[in-house]
């Protein structure tokens, strides 16, 4: 209803500043990837991590996305963080505040040492600080995990922020207007049922992703 | 990188139960829609609301998605809620817990009374309780807002839940394992700077989406 929610038609909200794009990407770990299956688009949620000028995705070699990459399918990847619900005086101006990145590209399958290094980056990307605590992947795990890199060369960011922008004639109408803030809350870590007693929660989990 | 994160290759996690699908959809308002532009997939974030056996999307008639629908483009729509970060003893089993729905279909443009009713549903879907407080859309706003319906006939849900599932040989390795819970937090509403004094925050915003 608000024009701000139709973010794909608001080029003035766009940003190609790499710092902005990197910050949005580094703030999350879940993306939605679209690829072609025959001539149809298919979207799936999957994890990602930014690695310099590219993002890394991983999955089973048999997964839809990895098979699509092997066929040379173009990819479109979206990452969106919701920051608030914009409660405007009209339905039309009601909307959300958000930060999003959309990337277009193709996937390049990694192998050898590059594949191995990327897997470490993926662990550390999801759970910063974790890499030092986990054992290296086994040969079987390496075989079962394909990794692709997608360049950020064709990436754009869109950000919508601020209070409702109501029409002048709607002001003073006696209807409450404002923002409901939306945030992601990371709770206190919960130990696995099979965890041996006496192990302390690592520091990097008690302050999870709160940089 | 746990197998559980590669949710597209885990049919055993799948659910076609409509109650499950509806509950996941009703828990959110942001989706990622993939459509075809020429022969490439394009993914964009946009708002949605479930309306019975279909979901409704809206946007400018000039938006990429509305033009794609007019061309008859197939759509793929993903909705994902992250419930936790699975901190396993190995990188391979580390992952996220999530609930997701993927819908495949085509968009049908709504017009006339159906279009008008859908806009009300969209307002109420984003901000439950709001419809009674906002004025009706103007003719200009109606013209500027296309609405499409996509059937839930081809929708599937995937859910990953529970503690890490480490290999037997990784248990007792002295490495902490468990879950970091992830939730969406809706904060206290913040009044618009141009709000007239003395207006109280409506009840439906102080308990926003906490049904």
Q: How would you describe this protein?
A:
- Two copies of one chain form a homodimer.
- Chain A is α+β, with helices and mostly antiparallel strands and 211 residues long.
- Helix content of chain A is 19%, strand content 37%.
- Chain A is built from five helices and eleven strands.
- In chain A, strands 1, 2, 3, 4, 5, 6, 7, 8, 9 and 10 form a ten-stranded antiparallel β-sheet that branches.
- In chain A, a hairpin with a 7-residue loop joins strand 5 and strand 6.
- The longest helix of chain A is centred in the middle third of the chain and has 15 residues, at 112-126.
- The two termini of chain A are 35 Å apart.
- Mean pLDDT of chain A is 92; it is low at 1-11.
- At the A-B interface, strand 2, strand 3, strand 5, strand 6 and helix 3 of A face strand 2, strand 3, strand 5, strand 6 and helix 3 of B.
- Strand 11 of chain A pairs antiparallel with strand 10 (178-186) of chain B.
Task: Considering the chains and any ligands shown, give keywords for the structure.
homodimer, 211 residues, alpha+beta
Give a summary of the structure in a few sentences:
The structure is a homodimer of 211-residue chains. The first copy, chain A, is 19% helix and 37% strand.
